[in-house]
């Protein structure tokens, strides 16, 4: 494969992740949600055409605009084939024929289309799981496997769920609109959950060749900024979510070694943290804190800020972080929150209490068998107590469960450390 061909294919992959969701949102606004399957096929065809065309004629000056224009032309042809009147088509599509490199919509109009699609996917007619799955699929172009992993279900079950959800989407009762009042708040909550999941998938990738998928993380930040700044969706909880994502993203450059291995917080070079992105995070956290509202994202952002302001790991204010986790457990008493609180307890010198807390989490036996994080943390905590038998058992179990190559390396390093003694 030539270098030019490889570059073209890499660009297509990048654009598919960043542009296909926008294209689906915009074209669905043109053609209607009842055409969602055809719109998805049309967008897929556009990328296939781009790959073929660009290999021969070269990459256009504005690849994203080229893709949007070609997809728009395909959508218009589709409507014509379905016997719409030409003048009506043009009024609905809102375009006049232009050169390939011209922009289809202004950025604000594309943002509005994405927001409308997010809210359509988060319609109360769907279950919470379907809302998350549809948004990840239609807005962020996640594969079935990626969505299944995020929601901890099988690929087959997720495929069936998406088919059923899209059939409901096509029935015509769900509008591409930004809702108001309580409906807006209810759906915003799901949108935030989706962006949180999207960022987490990128922050610790399950792909063998990518520990961090920065494209996913930055896409989550971009969309979080849309809902934070859009006049119809401004909300202090959105500010808190955006602050949280920025504060975590600021650590990207310190999280991967030169040998492409994951570096844990304790060993990270804090000089590599992105100071500008940290300041953005602090800005939105301050803005979120100005309102008399507190959410899970407020507290998690405050925890991330505590880590960010510490000069080094040793000077971390664990007492303050523990008090934040105490507050967080009252708002979101999820198993993962208690697991993270246990780690903080251990850093505060209470490792035995930390182990007791993990073992007291509801359904812990099942969690240890199915989620590597619980066995991994227990293995780490028992290592700190020099109980090598239990530590080794839990670490080996965690390594057998996780599909993340980066985490497998860390677990193996701990196993090697125990067996060498």
Automatic annotation (TrEMBL):
GO terms for molecular function: DNA binding; sigma factor activity. It holds the Pfam family Sigma70_r2. InterPro entries: DUF6596, RNA_pol_sigma-70_dom, RNA_pol_sigma70_ECF_CS, RNA_pol_sigma70_r2, RNA_pol_sigma_r2, RNA_pol_sigma_r3/r4-like, TPR-like_helical_dom_sf. The keyword Transcription regulation applies. One of its GO terms (biological process) is DNA-templated transcription initiation. Residues 38-82 form the RNA polymerase sigma-70 region domain. PROSITE patterns: SIGMA70_ECF. SUPFAM superfamilies: Sigma2 domain of RNA polymerase sigma factors (SSF88946), Sigma3 and sigma4 domains of RNA polymerase sigma factors (SSF88659), TPR-like (SSF48452). Residues 187-288 form the DUF6596 domain. Keywords: DNA-binding, Sigma factor, Transcription, Transcription regulation. Belongs to the sigma-70 factor family. ECF subfamily. PANTHER family: BLL6612 PROTEIN (PTHR47756:SF2), BLL6612 PROTEIN-RELATED (PTHR47756). NCBIfam families: sigma70-ECF (TIGR02937). This is RNA polymerase sigma factor.
């Amino acid at each position: 494969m030539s270098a030019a061909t490889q570059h073209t294919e890499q660009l297509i992959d990048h654009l598919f992740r960043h542009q296909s969701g926008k294209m689906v949102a915009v074209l669905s606004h043109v053609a209607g949600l009842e055409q969602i399957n055809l719109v998805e096929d049309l967008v897929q065809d556009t990328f296939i055409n781009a790959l073929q065309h660009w290999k021969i004629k070269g990459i256009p000056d504005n690849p994203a605009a080229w893709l949007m224009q070609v997809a728009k032309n395909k959508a218009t042809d589709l409507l014509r084939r379905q016997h719409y009147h030409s003048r009506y088509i043009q009024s609905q599509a809102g375009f006049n024929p232009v050169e390939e490199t011209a922009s289809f919509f202004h950025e604000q109009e594309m943002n509005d289309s994405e927001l409308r699609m997010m809210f359509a996917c988060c319609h109360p007619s769907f279950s919470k799981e379907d809302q998350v799955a549809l948004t990840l699929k239609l807005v962020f172009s996640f594969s079935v496997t990626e969505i299944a992993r995020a929601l901890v279900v099988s690929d087959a079950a997720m495929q069936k769920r998406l088919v059923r959800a899209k059939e409901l989407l096509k029935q015509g009762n769900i509008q591409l609109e930004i809702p108001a009042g309580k409906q807006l708040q209810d759906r915003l909550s799901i949108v935030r959950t989706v962006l949180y999941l999207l960022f987490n998938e990128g922050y610790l990738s399950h792909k063998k060749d990518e520990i961090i998928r920065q494209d996913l993380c930055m896409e989550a930040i971009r969309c979080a900024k849309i809902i934070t700044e859009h006049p119809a969706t401004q909300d202090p909880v959105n500010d808190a979510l955006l602050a949280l994502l920025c504060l975590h993203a600021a650590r990207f450059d310190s999280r991967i070694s030169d040998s492409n291995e994951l570096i844990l917080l304790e060993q990270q070079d804090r000089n590599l943290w992105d100071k500008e992105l940290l300041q953005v995070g602090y800005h939105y956290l301050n803005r979120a804190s100005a309102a008399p509202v507190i959410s899970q994202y407020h507290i998690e952002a405050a925890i991330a800020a505590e880590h960010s302001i510490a000069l080094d790991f040793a000077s971390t204010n664990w007492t303050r972080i523990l008090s934040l986790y105490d507050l967080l457990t009252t708002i979101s008493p999820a198993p993962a929150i208690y697991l993270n609180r246990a780690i903080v307890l251990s850093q505060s010198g209470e490792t035995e209490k930390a182990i007791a807390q993990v073992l007291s989490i509801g359904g812990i036996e099942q969690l240890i068998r199915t989620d590597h994080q619980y066995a991994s943390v227990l293995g780490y905590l028992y290592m700190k107590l020099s109980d090598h038998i239990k530590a080794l058992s839990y670490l080996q179990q965690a390594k057998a469960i996780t599909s993340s190559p980066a985490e497998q390396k860390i677990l193996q390093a701990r196993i090697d450390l125990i067996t060498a003694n």
